[in-house]
Amino acid sequence: MKRNMIIAALALSLPAAAQTDTTVLEGVTVQGYAQQRDLSTVPGAVSVVRGQDLQRVAPGSLVPALNAAPGVRMEERSPGSYRLNIRGSSLRSPFGVRNVKMYYNGLPFTDPGGNTYLNQFSPIIFSSLEVLKGPGSSLYGAGTGGVLLGDRRFDTGNGFSAGYTGGSYGSHLATVNGTWGNETFRQQAVASWQESGGYRDHTYMRRYVAGWSGRWKASERSALEAHVLAGDLYYETPGGLTLAQFLANPRAARPAAGAFPSAQGAKAAIYQQTVWGGLKWEYKWNEHWEHSAGVYGAWSGLKNPSIRNYEQRNEPHAGARTVVTWKKGPWRVLAGAEGQTGNFRTRVFTNKDGNADVLQTDDRIRNGMLSLFLQSEVVLEGGWVFTAGLSMNGANTTIRRVSESPVFRFETDYDKEWAPRIAVLKQFSPWASVYAVVSKGFSTPAVAELLPSTSVINTGLQAEKGWNYEAGARGGNGHFRYDVSLFRYQLKDAIVSRRDASGADYFVNAGATVQQGAEVAATWLPAHFLGLRGAWTFHHFRYGQFTQADKSYDGNRLPGTPQHALAASADVRLSRSFSLFATWQYNDDVFMNDANTDKAASFNLLGLKAEYRLKRQGWEGRLFAGGENLLDETYSLGNDINAAAGRYYNAAPGRAFYAGFAVQLGK
């Protein structure tokens, strides 16, 4: 392990060269917890992924950029199939993103059933992403796994840009983006097309994404924003492999076994469409009072022929969020509410050669959530910041199985769950701010956990909840910046996934988990042509009490989460036009099951990218080329935790290369 880490670190330090303009680290303003100020004065663990972070890796995927942030682990089981883990939350995510609440331009994107279809986004949609680590329930509703804030800012100029990238395994990405308007009314539109043949057998993917935003500044005091997003995604699902199959041929799809067909024989795939639209109004009454209010409506449709069956989902939902803010002197108080409602339908059929055949179950699902929140903050002389927040959360889900006679009805009701958050920060100097946080998280089971792909309604699943204790420090100057956080999260009734012999998922409550660790990030600009970044994650995650089927897992490591993860990057400007970017990521080995008897090996990922910029009056062009996984590691990413028969492994792509261009007019 140490030898590989040293080799990769040396590889990052090799590039060096000529001169260009002096580079200084810019301040980072964050929106999380309604702070809206520089990160150095925010009492909480926050990571920010900006446009320049996406620029140093291959276009088309958020995975490498998010994985460079400490405490964050994004996985891609196959092209288009994402999972997002913030401090271990992927225990609940066989596929998709659960237990992480996501907002897009200040409005909920996560549906009231608890699912976030992050794979409906193209990276071009985002100007920045903020990751709030630890429970965000005091402002963002029920959740124990963190919060993701996606934003697309309005550009000030008028212009048009387009780009194309092609690479290994039949990958293609084309994007277009335009901004236009004046000071009163601005608009922007974006579209992308992406396709990949996939590294493994049966992993073809194609994705279309389009978005539009408009901002009307009605007066100096008020503004109205509108956002629309549409995505159409298709990808084949190859299924998990046993260790013997993975070692023999990692590129293979799951073969037939017993009564179950192969992934190819079942034509296992995901057909998914999403349409989301929102309106947000902001009004400043006077120097003390401000108000924002927003509504959204969305629809998602999903078809999933699988080895076990054929599932169809129809998921319309809507919601609203409103916040009133009062500011005077050092005080800032905000109060608000957020509500969502959905009316879903899920039908499961037998799978006949990739087509829906005989109806097995037909479920109508009504779900809703309501969160009322209050937060007070005072910024005092001497660098002190005190924050106290409290929310009251309610959620309910009703499932009616209309395919049975009489109709079976199941209802959950989680009422008046209180979630406080108290934080304090002391800034001694630009070099040293320290903070401490105590917060409570609460998360109800998602609809996909109450009604998993086994089609058996899980009537015994309970909500998980716990307390998080955290301390941190950050600081720096224009050439160096650091960020350190230490945490201990004690979770009760943690929801854990299982997989049966067919590959269908189901869920159980663990008695308790203790999740503690350290997360460190640093950025250093030692010279005007060189920028270095590094991150270290240490997660000591254990089951406290967990016994199932007479088996005790007390003290075992939580599966799916590496104990150590490291990331580093070097940006080298050889001239005003030519730059090199090197990235390296290391993941420790991970256990694949609760018993800690099986594990996936550690791996190193090395990437290099070269970029040439040509700028002329009125336009700018970029040519780039690069490679990923240059060490050609054979590794599994997006493991199927607790899978029956040891079918844990989903091989990630081997060594890959890409090249492309981008052209920008105006601005």
Describe this entry's structure for a reader.
The protein is mostly beta strands. It has one domain: TonB-dependent receptor, beta-barrel domain (Maltoporin, Chain A), CATH 2.40.170.20. Helices cover 5% and strands 58% of the residues. It has 6 helices and 39 strands. The chain has a 22-stranded antiparallel β-barrel. Strand 23 and strand 24 form a beta hairpin. The chain is globular and about 65 Å long. It starts with a helix and ends with a strand.
Topology:
Blueprint: H1 2-13, E1 29-30, E2 37-38, E3 46-50, H2 51-55, H3 63-67, E4 72-78, E5 81-86, E6 97-98, E7 101-104, E8 107-108, E9 115-116, E10 128-132, H4 137-140, E11 147-151, E12 159-167, E13 171-181, E14 185-196, E15 205-216, E16 222-236, H5 243-248, E17 269-284, E18 289-305, E19 310-328, E20 331-352, E21 355-380, E22 384-401, E23 408-429, E24 432-443, H6 447-450, E25 464-476, E26 480-492, E27 495-499, E28 505-509, E29 512-527, E30 530-545, E31 547-548, E32 551-552, E33 564-573, E34 578-587, E35 590-591, E36 599-600, E37 603-616, E38 619-628, E39 656-666
